Amino acid sequence: MLPVIELNHISKYFGKFAAVKDLSLTVEKGEFFGFIGPNGAGKSTTMNMILSFIKQDGGTVKLFGQEMPAGNVAVKKRIGYVPSDVRFYPQLRVQDLIRYTMDFHQVKENKKEVDELCELFQVDRKKKFGDLSLGNKKKVAIVCAMIHQPELLILDEPTNGLDPLMHARLFRLMKEKQEQGVTIFLSSHNLKEVEDYCSKIAFIKNGQLIGVEDLTKMNKKVKVVTLKGRNLPVEQMEAIGAKSITQNEDEIRFLYEKDLVQLFTTLKELSNELDDITVSNRDLEEQFMSMYENKGGEW
Ligand SMILES: Nc1ncnc2c1ncn2[C@@H]1O[C@H](COP(=O)(O)OP(=O)(O)OP(=O)(O)O)[C@@H](O)[C@H]1O
């Protein structure tokens, strides 16, 4: 099956500044794909190239197997997009905006579907767009992105400004859509939501892709081990496979992905002043911080 998004060595320069450098990425049909990275990493620029809002300076963008921007309009009708910064004509009423969006996608007004979406996100269709709060503008953008039942949803920080109830409703809806075969490409700074919902994530930093991880496997592989006690054998830890070692008074903390039984046996041989050992799965936040602080070398 053809990938839904295929980026091959794309770059984007603003003057001499490379906002995105030689980035390649594949998103398969039905994936819930998280795109994460610090402020200014190049997430929105990448999304803007995927959507043909800006043209890449090098490389190719393929959507549903077609090179963009060839076949642009036909492909765009298969996409729903929620921008990070929602801007529509402020004088337009929400109901006119919804009608305008449906006209663009040439879909007949499906009153039931629109009613359900507006009810789910508590959208007041009589209000002027310019009079809405940030969160309510975002909810209108979400409704507009979904009313034509797109096969690909591109969401740039969609929960920014949403209250917790709306946040939960949005993710529940996206999960339902994914189960129906919709592909979701989401950028977010909320690591918890990425961890809870995404099946795969790509990390971007300084315009470059620095890792793609299958989230279902990622947390199981690397463990965080904490040792407590006196005279801990910190010098020997690296030799037994510990990574990203930090020491704090009577405590050593490190990442470990080898056999734990072997680790316990070796530790017993190395120290008889060990008071406590804890082992936990490394959560995404810890992994994210380690990548962005450039600790831990393995990234
Ligand atoms: N039109 C532009 N002209 C010049 N520089 C730009 C332009 N658009 C983006 N940039 C720069 O490109 C870099 C990447 O920006 P981008 O908005 O893609 O980052 P981001 O990862 O989406 O960040 P954030 O998480 O803060 O939204 C930034 O340094 C930004 O200042």
UniProtKB/TrEMBL annotation:
Give the protein name, as stated in the record: ABC transporter ATP-binding protein
- Similarity comment text for this entry: Belongs to the ABC transporter superfamily.
Keyword Transmembrane tagged: no
Alphabetized, the UniProt keywords read: ATP-binding, Nucleotide-binding, Transport
Superkingdom assignment: Bacteria
Q: Which CDD domains match?
A: ABC_DR_subfamily_A (cd03230)
Q: Where is the ABC transporter domain?
A: 5-231
Matching InterPro entries: AAA+_ATPase, ABC_transporter-like_ATP-bd, ABC_transporter-like_CS, ABC_transporter_ATP-binding, P-loop_NTPase
**Protein source organism:** Terrilactibacillus laevilacticus
